[in-house]
Amino acid sequence: MFDGTLAHILPLSFNAFRSVYKQYDNREFTNEEFFAVFGPTEEEIVDSYRSNKPSVSDAIQDYYSYYEPEHHESQCEEHYPHIICVVTGKSRCFFDISTTAFQLESYFDVTIKGDDVVHPKPHPKGIHKALKLSL
Predict the structure, then answer these.
(1) Which 3-state string (H, E, C) describes 27-77?
(2) pTM of the predicted model, to two decimals?
(3) What is the distance between the alpha carbons of residues 110 and 134, in angstroms, rounded to a whole number?
C-alpha cells in the first residue's frame, strides 16, 4: 500500500521521529514503519515506541524542536499540492452539522468520518483512505 509518492507527504514529521529515535534509542525506522503507526498523537507515538521510558518527555520536546524549524526551511508550496484532508472519528452527521454551522464545508478537499471506515481512529485506515483520495 505504501509507495514512493507517500514518502513525500509526511517528510517533516518522519524526519523529526527519525532524529528522536536515533538520538534516544539508536534505532532506525523506515517511512513504512512510521506510516504504519500514524493515527495517535505524536506524543503517543513517541511514548509507545521508546524503549527508554524515563526520557520520553525529553524525546517529545526534541521531536517538536526538530519538527518546527523544518517548516521554515521547507518549500512545500513548490512541491506539494494544496489539499486539505480531515480524518475524524466523529460521525458524518456530527461532522456535517458542525461544518455547516461554522461554514467550513468549502475548506476541505477530502473528509473521512468515523462511519466512512470499518476501523475508525486511531486505526490508520482513515488516513490511508484520505491519502488515496487526495493523490
Answers:
(1) CCCCHHHHHHHCCCCHHHHHHHHCCCHHHHHHHHHHHHHHHHHHHHHCCHH
(2) 0.51
(3) 7
Q: Using 70 as the pLDDT threshold, list the residues of the chain that sit under it.
A: 1-10, 50-53, 70-82
34: closest CA among 77, 2, 71, 74?
2
SS3 percent helix, strand, coil of the chain, rounded to 5, is 60, 5, 35
Distance of CA 26 to the CA centre of its chain: 23
CA distance 90 to 33: 26
C-alpha cell of 42?
505524536
Q: How far is CA 83 from CA 33, 71, 73, 93, 110, in A?
A: 24, 17, 20, 23, 8
Matching residue, cell 507517500:
6
SS3 85: strand
Q: Is 134 left (phi over 0), alpha (psi -120 to 50) or beta?
A: alpha
Amino acid at 83: I
